[in-house]
Amino acid sequence: AQSVTQLDSQVPVFEEAPVELRCNYSSSVSVYLFWYVQYPNQGLQLLLKYLSGSTLVKGINGFEAEFNKSQTSFHLRKPSVHISDTAEYFCAVSGGQGAQKLVFGQGTRLTINP
Amino acid sequence: GAVVSQHPSRVICKSGTSVKIECRSLDFQATTMFWYRQFPKKSLMLMATSNEGSKATYEQGVEKDKFLINHASLTLSTLTVTSAHPEDSSFYICSASGGYGGEQFFGPGTRLTVL
């Protein structure tokens, strides 16, 4: 079975400061990892994904994440945040690239303060 | 590309009535669709997986007779909440997969409120 843990339920950050949202996973098989963003009363938008290859993955809106197999982590980072980055962020894992089930973490609420 | 729509975006109904939510893939053929439920300030919980032309596979603890899923075509899946009760009030999100390497594309969600 797979599971995802997002260690921080809420992360407050000042505008233009860097941010890191933590994600750890557990799985007995090779995994594919995803970060999604959800704005209020909306569905999920894919920020980035790791399927294979380079462990540093760059996504939309200036976000990036690094896959660390030894630490079973996939932390999301952005060097300088904007007010518009205020949202809920979800880390997710699946067991394959096909239409596999996604297992989501609990979510991290990122709040950007001016 | 890869747009998924849901209808309605918001619905309020009386207890005991049934509500149908549609999920459509607008620009690709979705061989698999997923239905999720999200409680306030919580993560997404997978309810069921549906493949076009076959019966849905429900997650443990999800009542298949209460949450009827139909995936009749490659662009449409429906979720019907039968005999809805206030505890069924939630945000329901669908996703569709079938193109672009199997990635799931999410709909905007449907807010269901049962009075």
Protein model, in words:
- The complex is a heterodimer of chains A (114) and B (115).
- Chain A has strands at residues 3-5, 10-14, 19-21, 24-26, 32-38, 44-50, 56-58, 64-68, 73-78, 87-94, 103-104, 108-113.
- Chain A is globular.
- Chain A contains no helices and 12 strands.
- In chain A, a hairpin with an 8-residue loop joins strand 10 and strand 11.
- In chain A, the strands form 3 sheets. In chain A, strands 2, 5, 6, 10, 11 and 12 form a 6-stranded mixed sheet that branches.
- Chain A is an all-beta fold and 114 residues long.
- The model of chain A has no long low-confidence stretch (mean pLDDT 91).
- With 115 residues, chain B is mainly beta.
- Chain B is built from no helices and 11 strands.
- In chain B, the strands form 2 sheets. In chain B, strands 2, 4, 5, 6, 9, 10 and 11 form a 7-stranded mixed sheet that branches.
- In chain B, strand 7 (67-73) and strand 8 form a beta hairpin.
- Chain B is globular and about 35 Å long.
- Chain B starts with a strand and ends with a strand.
- Classes of the chains: A mainly beta (114), B mainly beta (115).
- Chain A binds chain B through residues 36, 41-46, 49, 51, 90, 96-107, 109, and chain B through 4, 6, 31-32, 34, 41-44, 46, 49, 91, 93, 95, 97-98, 101-109, 111.
